[in-house]
Structure formats: C-alpha cells, structure tokens
Amino acid sequence: MTTDNFSEEPGIGGVFDAKDAYRERVLAEALRRSLLPDPDVADMWRSIGVGGPPFPKHWCGAFALSTLRTVLSSCGINWRVGFGFAEQHLPRTLSPRPGDVVIYERNWHHALVRRVTGAGLDPHEIETIDGNQGRGGAVVGPGIFAIRTRAREAAFAYYSIEKLLDAQVEADAAMAYATTNEETEA
Q: How far is CA 102 from CA 34, 53, 96, 130, in A?
C-alpha cells in the first residue's frame, strides 16, 4: 500500500484534517521549488537565519527547512551551522509521513519525505524530495533537485514535523478567534 499525499489513508481514522492539509502544502511548496531552474540558495540560507556570504556549500538542509518555514509561518526554527536543525528541534519517528524530514548518513544529506510505502514499522521504500542534487558537482542550475526512492532502512533517522503542525494549527485557531471577535465587536 502506498500513502501518496494522503489520497488513500488521510489522517487518523481516515479523516483528512488541518495538519494533513499543511503536510500537503509542504509537499506542494517543495515540488514548486524543485521546478525552479536557478533557486536563490543564498535566500534559502538567509531565510533560516544563516548570515553570509559565504554560505555553506551543501544546501539540502536549507531547502528542507526553508520549505517548512515558508508553509508553516509559526515555525521559528533556525539553522545552526555545524548542527543543522532536525536533531535539535524535531522528535525522531519510526513511522515517517509525507512532509517529515529524513537525514541520510552520507554527507548528512537532508530531504523531505514525499511518499511512504508500507505501513507501521515494515521496511519498505521512501520517496523523497531532495535539494542540492547538482549534476557534475554543480550546486545551482538545472538538475539540482531530485525525487528519489530509497529503502526505508537506508536513512540515518526520520524526524516528525507533527509538533510544528500542532503549533501552526493552534496559531491559525488563535488568529481565527481574534478575527471573529473583531468582527463581532464591530
């Protein structure tokens, strides 16, 4: 069974909720960015709190985190050069879902989970959206993004974005409440 952008088994108990919608938006933004012929890598780094230039050469993590921050406005996580972001801010998970972050040991490569095959803890495949995938060592230009399929167990670790989604849904609810109260008082 494939969970492809929640089309078969959205949410808990088959209910598509606000957090699932945000997971969809994370994937849509990552895919939108993957179509850019020349992404502004410096802007990605700046958007996640890294000053420069110079900026770090490898920007796969900047792609992942800046995508999350673009969609989840309540996400205040910044990149920490030499440490990244996932290990310090996100809990590890054994059941990755679309939008979660995956790190591979080789070069500590970061990517976003696009699709998961199998259920629970069964070792199946993970499809990811990866940045910094240049051809011939290029870090900008065509071919810098890739959608890859790897064995699930090939990852160093998976990190859940669930707490970021909870914070975003809570922020949305607070904004809706404030807006409703303003309209009622007017």
A: 17, 27, 8, 10
